[in-house]
Amino acid sequence: MKRIESRNNPIIKSVVALRNRKERETLGLFCFEGVHLLEEFVRSGKKLKQLFVREDVAQKYSSLINSAGGEVFEVTSSVYEKITEEKAPQGLFSVSEYLDNVCSFDEKQAKLISGNSILLSDLQDTGNVGTVIRTAAALGCNVILCGNCADIYSPKTVRATMGAVFTSDVYIAESTETAVDLLRKAGKRVIATALTDKAETLGKFEIRPDDCFVIGNEGRGLTQEVISKCDFTAIIPMTGKTESLNAANASAIIMWEVARGR
Q1: Are residues 196 and 89 in the same domain?
Q2: For residues 141-157, average pLDDT
Q3: Structural domain of residue 128, as residue ranges?
Q4: Residue 244 has pLDDT above 90, yes or no
């Protein structure tokens, strides 16, 4: 285990730079913090590129550290303060290469993808994106991220998945319109979640084994262009006075209905 005591160490500077999305994309690296996420990462069978361990927890987590793989650095509390973004850090900071279970969505993937899917269109909140991935893992759905969705490799997104991102099949599409076209060309039915005059009510129609539901942006919802490309629209029945639901909550309800009907 190598030791780093300077906050100006080039390795530390390179880790701090991973907060920037462009830097992550250029290097193909991302980072995450904490004991639970590292445990889930190790359980997935993957190996880290680097692990930074605050000196006061090195002995406490020695078994986990030895299982993580990669290059291990012991750092002082001062150095760790520079790399962490957590309010109550646990002293384990991990750096990994991009995940092999996250891939681009193209015509080939549209044909190969099996089971139900949730397609997220321009969801920009890292918490929402991460929560959807976590829920999808629990309920057996694929996730397709489109357009300007929050970066799946953002530390906040990874944290919100609670480690589900390490094993879930997640696809990245160039745009929502392209993804919808590819899915329909592959024979899948694509359903827009939007309030329209002809919207069908969730629970009132049969869900097919490979149906894909499209969830729109937190504020704007789905564009008319996207809606027009889908097979039909659907709404979640609500008895209260609330006009809409949080995107992650809406996704969870849809995925539960999908799982319930299997």
Answers
A1: no
A2: 94
A3: 102-260
A4: no
